[in-house]
Amino acid sequence: MSDPWVALEPGADPAERVRVLRRAHETFTTAGTVPRPVRSVVADSWRRSARAGVGPDGSARVELSDGDLGAYRAEHPLARVMSLFRELMGTFAADGEHLLAVCDAHGRLLWVEGHPVTRRRADRMNFVPGARWAESAVGTNAPGTAVAVDRPVQVFAAEHFIRQVQPWTCAAAPVHDPRTGQVLGAVDITGGDGLAHPHSLGFVQAVARAAESQLALLTPPPPAAEMPGLTVLGRDEAVLRLGGHRIRLGRRHSELLVLLARHPEGLTGDELLCAVYEDESVTPVTLRAELARLRRLLGPGLFASRPYRLTAPVESDLAVVERRLEAGAVTAAVAAYTGPLLPGSQAPAVVRLRRRLADGLRTALIARRDPDLLADWAHAPWSEDDLAVWRALASLRPTPAVHARLAGLESELALPESRVPR
């Protein structure tokens, strides 16, 4: 298939495709193997569903109802663009006997609207507001999988992991916070086989982008003077954006600001001393001198003591990557990762943060099994010797160049196969 994200190629016979998919689904649920005709995005989703303990005869569970659902929806950012969703998709859903659905970043359905007969059919499988349709709860489905992989996706008929959902076809696209890039949820169109057309995938993607543009207009970013920013990835000395100016910090001040930005509640002198200095003989006087210089640099309006803390939120590129990774937006997280956190720092707390972030990205990339993302990571200067990533890449893209690089790494490191974590 030319586009793995589209369920059916133009001219394909939907009935024959359904028969093939049902056989493949049966093979997977009984033998654990995925026959070749199944799209890679679906095969990966089936494997994640099985690892999460989802059974093919399961069903969705309603987590929010009545007042709880109403209060949650009212406070959710996507409530501000529901009128846009209805304007762009409402008539299409009603006329085509489809459903418009919107979920949050955890796969919980917030709104399900559309043709009344179709809604009654969907009610029988708990495709209703308040139900959790995360991939980890009900397996492969468009809204749940879209937030899991952070990209638009189509799920056709027996590509759904749960048999009860296999009569349906759906297309969904994630919606992001235009300021932070964090996944807010997904917009979905659900109905019959006709939605397997490529146009439905492009349609929901366009609606999601329109929603992001609307959110950007509704919540414009505050002036730079009101939102200090910190760049700490891929550089030994941080850059602070403050009051419209760019301030290049020394290494020690970079370390201190990273830690203070992560702890808005503040840190004591003893906590900072242990976090920043390797040498246990360094005295509190040395730390207090550094903090005094940092206070003069930042000004009293941003820095306070007892405990040491920042008096306003400071956004950082580190926090952006962490949020995207936590939300499962691996592609977006990798795009924002410009290198290790303060790579030259030996401050114990910074070293731990640096390793945890790199390990989290590496683990997510290997689990995602996207050869393009793995190749980008493997060829980056900070990970060109990452054996686990090169092995994962070789399993997906076994080219001579990849195998040659992998063989060279294994020879250089001289590690037995059994000792290298996968």
Automatic annotation (TrEMBL):
Q: Which UniProt keywords apply?
A: DNA-binding, Transcription, Transcription regulation
Gene Ontology biological process: phosphorelay signal transduction system; regulation of DNA-templated transcription
Native source organism of the sequence: Streptomyces brasiliensis
Work out whether the entry's keyword set contains Transcription: yes
Enumerate the spans annotated as OmpR/PhoB-type domain: 244-310
From the Swiss-Prot or TrEMBL record, what is one GO molecular function term?
Answer: DNA binding
Database matches in SMART domains: Trans_reg_C
Look up keyword S-adenosyl-L-methionine and say if it applies: no
Q: Can you name this protein?
A: Transcriptional regulator
